[in-house]
Amino acid sequence: MKNPKQSAKSTTPFQQRVYFATAKIPRGHVTTYACLAAALGCGSARAIGQALSCNPSPLQIPCHRIVKSDGALGGYFKKTTGDVCRTKRSLLEGEGITFTPAGRVHEHFILRTLKADQALDCWDSQMTPSGAAQ
């Protein structure tokens, strides 16, 4: 599912940092928009969501692994309901993540603390998340 409105060449440095950190979230786990924001030092969960809504390469940058602080799915490709959000849940379930009866990710799958060095180790502002030079 490629985002036709955003190419890798048109991503901002902030988006690149968000994408790189998101790519570090391991399969079978999620983190929250707020935790990712804190790890990146931006302080705005909403800014993380905005950056992820423009993800140019969802197969390499698993933005489905970012959820709301309460474990609810949040958005996926600028949608908060419908087939797109069912796809997000299905992707997570395919990684072994389970949900409460209320539709929230079970707490033990949520990484609540990310250190900046974990999120951004080896980050080089001259590289894209896939490692290709800009």
Characterize the overall form. globular
Order of helices and strands: HEHHEHEH
CATH architecture group name: Orthogonal Bundle
Described by its quaternary structure, the protein is single chain
Strand fraction equals 5-15%
Residues in helices, as a percent range: 25-40%
Q: Kindly report how far apart the N and C termini lie.
A: 22 Å
Q: What is the count of distinct domains?
A: 1
Spatial order of the strands forming the largest sheet? 2-1-3
Find the count of extended strands (DSSP E, 2+ residues): 3
Give a quick account of the main beta sheet: strands, pairing sense, barrel closure: 3 strands, parallel
The helix/strand class is mainly alpha
The averaged pLDDT comes out at: 81
User: What is the helix tally?
Assistant: 5
Q: What is the CATH superfamily?
A: Winged helix-like DNA-binding domain superfamily/Winged helix DNA-binding domain
Based on CA atoms alone, the radius of gyration comes out at: 14 Å
Low-pLDDT ranges? 1-6, 121-134
CATH C-level name: Mainly Alpha
CATH fold assignment: Arc Repressor Mutant, subunit A
What's the layout of helices and strands?
Elements: H1 13-23, E1 30-32, H2 33-40, H3 45-52, E2 66-67, H4 83-94, E3 110-111, H5 116-120
Parallel strand pairs: 1-2, 1-3
Helix pairs in contact: 2-3
